[in-house]
């Protein structure tokens, strides 16, 4: 069964993103939000790209914009706050990395 991984912390300050990448499966979904948006420029990001399909990689657009992070929609999908709530409600299992 697939899992929704919500990453809220930066790998520049904590090891939550690394722990997430150690357990994430190819069928899982990964969402960067809050300071987790900074992970898009961390060295671990390439590991995320190799483990999860592009269609399952998301960044909360409002959180990225608040941190002046440009979103390359060729490598990650932008997600509105409303869409995030829908995704959380529709997913049976989730884990928050914070």
Structure, explained:
The chain has 98 residues and is an alpha/beta fold. It is built from four helices and five strands, in the order βαβαβαβαβ. The protein has helices at residues 16-23, 45-51, 61-66, 81-90; strands at residues 4-7, 29-32, 57-60, 77-79, 94-97. The chain has a five-stranded parallel sheet. The chain is globular and about 35 Å long. The two termini are 22 Å apart. The mean pLDDT is 94.
| Average residue-wise pLDDT | 94
Q: What does the radius of gyration come to?
A: 12 Å
The SS-based structural class is: alpha/beta
User: Could you give the distance between the termini?
Assistant: 22 Å
CATH class: Alpha Beta
| Percent of residues in helices | 25-40%
Treating each run of at least 4 consecutive H or I residues as one helix, how many helices?
4
Reported by name, the CATH topology is Hypothetical Protein Ychn, Chain: A
What is the CATH architecture assignment?
3-Layer(aba) Sandwich
CATH superfamily: DsrEFH-like
Q: Number of DSSP strands?
A: 5
For the biggest β-sheet, the strand order reads: 4-3-2-1-5
pLDDT < 50 runs, ≥5 residues: none
- Global outline: globular
Order of helices and strands: EHEHEHEHE
Percentage of residues in DSSP E strands: 15-25%
């Amino acid at each position: 069964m697939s899992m929704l991984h919500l990453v809220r912390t930066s790998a520049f300050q904590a090891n939550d993103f690394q722990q997430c990448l150690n357990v994430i499966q190819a069928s899982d979904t990964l969402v960067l939000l809050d300071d987790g948006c900074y992970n898009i420029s961390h060295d671990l990001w390439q590991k995320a790209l190799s483990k999860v399909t592009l269609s399952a990689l998301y960044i909360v657009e409002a959180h990225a914009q608040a941190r002046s992070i440009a979103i390359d929609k060729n490598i990650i999908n932008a997600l509105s706050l409303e869409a995030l709530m829908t995704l959380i409600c529709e997913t049976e299992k989730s884990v928050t990395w914070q």
